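<instruction>
Derive structure tokens from the sequence
<data>
Labelled lines for chain and fold
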Amino acid sequence: MKTATKKKLKESLLAYLFLLPSLIVLGIFVFWPVGFSFVLSFFKWDFRNMNAPYFNGFDNYISIFEFDYPPKYSFFGSFIFSIGYILIAILIVITFYTLITVFSKKKNTILLLLNVIPILLIPFLKNINLYLMIFFNIVVFILVFYNFKNSEQMKLYRNYTWLNVAAIIFTYVMIEASKFNENGLLNFFMDAKDKNLFVKALVNTFYYVILTVPITLAISLFLAVLLNSNIRFKVFFRTSYFIPFVTSVVAVSLVWKWIFNDEFGLLNYFLSWFGIEPIRWLKDEKWTIPTIAIVSIWKQIGYDAIIFLAGLQNIDQFYYEAAEVDGANSWHKFSKITWPLLSPTTFFLLIVSMIGAFKVFAQVYVLYDGLPGPYNNSGMTMVYYVFDLFYRQQRMGIASAAAYLLFGIILIFTAIQYKVGNKVVEYVS
């Protein structure tokens, strides 16, 4: 027994000795700077206190959220209303499955009527006070919980998990953005972003993430399916799509800067073929984030397509042959075989793409000559906000605090993805 323990201890010690050089390098260049910057986020450290920073607690974090002018809506009230809108969005999607069970088996009629009543109240929600909204949220939550206990409609719901999650998100955004509701978080952030630079950076970054991640994954999957089929010159197309990814982001941004030129750019030239007036891509505030997103999507598509292609080629052809014997068409094979078995690959790309999207910086810096957009900080992102505080304003303490806020946001979204991924991702050995 002692011999076995000694042998295991010796093997572990030998393994750590092999890892020691890497641990030393990581400790010096990664772990120490990360830990030290976290400590400095609680210190007053700027160009006036360069040599003698002093501890000021959470003042750096508090100052980040200070508004130049009071926001129109309260954050807590907007949060409560948004919780209600999310519950309503879930209820609307679930009601669709309740309707199916009512028409198919003549059951759950009372539950369907109970579901419809809160949905009909949507236009009146903006006129109720905060306490009534809290009560409304409790009632809708109980309805949602009761729906989820219904095994028949939840079986239908789970068969299209990804589609239902997308439908809930879309429905929630439509409710928030509708003219009937003005008290949600969406309106709070739209108002607050012009009164606080950090909130503006947060809104712009989320806008960028929402634009780039789904579109990149969708186009990449489409290209991967095409490249996985029997087409000619597959090697040429794979290489062509992958070249932008390995090209320097600065070089890519400089080329796109010329393409986006509103007078001599190729993009406006091509749009003129369809009678579309020239767009001021690099000069109009509303096009700032879409412009950055186009560059990022074009650069990232090749990498995602290659990873999707590897996932497609890892699916055993036996499944498709069995489906053909059962008379399945192309859509059935994709929705019932390809998409479920590709979920681990999609999950990986979703996490990597979202983390990368939150860290966008170089495209903004190059496209707008070192400025956060053409005017009004329309291209201000989270990383650019940290860069501006640290490098230009030399307020290193607040910059460290902002960097850890970004880290916290990425950590929360990654944790949510892992939580959801554990339930919906199908790993097949």
